[in-house]
Each structure stands twice: as structure tokens, then as C-alpha cells.
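=== RUN LOG ===
request id: a7f3
mode: sequence -> structure
chains: 1
length: 324
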Amino acid sequence: MKNVSELMDFRPGIKVVDATLRDGGLVNDFFFPEGFAKALYEANVKAGVDYMEFGYKADKEMFDLSKYGPSKFCDEDYIRSVVGDNDTALKIAVMADVGRCNYKNDIIENKDSAVDLIRVACYLNQIPAAIDMIEDAHKKGYETSCNIMAISTAQENDIKTALEFIGKSPVDVIYIVDSYGSIYPEAMARIVDVYKEVADKYGKKLGIHAHDNQKLAFANTIECVGDGVDYLDATYLSMGRGAGNCAMELLLGLLHNPKYNLYPVFDFIEKNMLPMREKGVVWGYDLQYLMTGLFNQHPRAAIQFTKEKRTDITDFYTEMMGLD
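=== RESULT ===
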């Protein structure tokens, strides 16, 4: 049983992280409507959100600039065009993927940047490279986090070994990431225990980034809140890759800290998210994403199913079972 006070009261240490531009950008190749990022920034400030993730620091030699919107690369000029000097309590974050980021050159000194937090994303076999990126960002003056992806496919002992290496690094926050939306709350409780042992040992904070393939992103986030996880990722109207993420409107409704304000969230959704969906941008829970979650698979097959506007859901189910 969770300690009721962990859910009914508020912990000052909780930080809400908006990932709409970054995870949501995977839905539309980061081509958001004009003014969208500015309106989102203003909504986050008014809502009391703690961090806003602007997107990726992708390598411009690796990715064609003409095929993606500005949040794929997060140039300083782009971020500054939205936040100016950011004379607010809201902090700015970007994600740097191991192997997809020229971090030595593209992540400048923190004193010259609008960015506060560098979120390093990696797989278990990329931990040494991730640590090098964390150390580089730390030396440049940034807050740092590490997001180990696809942990639902990994052995617990491998995760523990990786966490030990990360714990010894200067990282500030270690993220639990349910990449495939396949983890149930009961299993999440056990995962938090594993992460918390290392986090407590090395004085690190924990975060949760959940996907909604089985409509459990909010449930798993609640589980983590009750277990003492402080950094909570969410997106407006759950917009994110495939089935999307924990909904910002659900999360702020759960948290009891009076600094959070739901009205700006609903106002932004009404004026920006709903029109974008009406124009044909597709994301959110659907049967094909449920299936990849059930089978603990990357949602790429479900994403392709969606792009092709297929409706043969039973055929897709047999494909997922390897029966085609």
C-alpha cells in the first residue's frame, strides 16, 4: 500500500516536466503550427510547470534540416525566439540522444545558453557514451538527467549494473523510462525500488517518463509519485510518440501543490491542441499501440500501421504474434 500522505499532500521536491515539443514532435516531425511553441511556453509559465523540454539536440550532419522542424535541433536562436531571457521560474530542457548528437560542439557553455537541463537518452549498451555526455554537460554548467530507454526488455541485473555506473557520474536525475508502455504498476513499484536503492546511495533524484500504450502512463506516474519519484514527465493532451505519454491535465489534477494551475492547461489545449488534432495530426491510444505494449515491442510497427491508415487490426495482431 502507498503512503496516503504521499498522494494527498504535496512534496516541494516534485518537478513537473513538459515534454510536448519533444515527444510530441515525434508525431509531426517537429512541424508545429506557427506560434505553438510560444503559446506552450506561456501556458507552462502560467500553469507553474517546472521544466519545458524544447526538443532534441540532433546532429545536423546526420539529419536533414529540411525534413524536420526547429525542435529537432534546438538552436539557441530558436529557443531564445520563444523564451527571450526567460525571466521566469520555468527552466528549459533539451534531450541529447547518444549517437545522434554532436554534443561537444552543439551543446555550448551553460552561461551562454537559455537551456538549464540536458537530458541524456541512451540504451543499456550505450552507458559509457552516456556518461561521457553527462560529464561534458556537467562541466559546462548544466543540470543533467539520464534516461535509460527500453528497460522493459532488459534483465534486472543489467539494469542494476548500469545504474551503478550512472550513480557514480555527476548526473542529477536518473529516469525510469517505460519506452514501450508495457510496464504495469505492480512491476513499476519493483522497478522504483531497484532505482531508488542506487539513487539513495549516490544522492540522486529519480524521474518517470511513461508511455500510454496500455493506458497506464498516468497510473504508472501515480505509482512513482507514491514511491517518492520527484521528476514527472507529461505532455499536453498526452501528445507523444505513438500512444503518447502521461497527460499534463491529469498530472496537475493529481498534484496538490497550490503553485500548479490547471486553467492555463485547458486554455492551451482548447486553442492549440484540439485544432491541431482536427487538422489531422494523429496521436494517442489505439489498438495497434495496445498490441505493441502487450508484446513489449517498439511501437514502430504500430506507427507504420497508423501512417498507412490500415484498419485490419486482427491481421496486425497476428503479425505481432509472428503468425503472418
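=== NOTES ===
Residues 287-320 form one domain.
The two ends are 43 Å apart (CA to CA).
=== END ===
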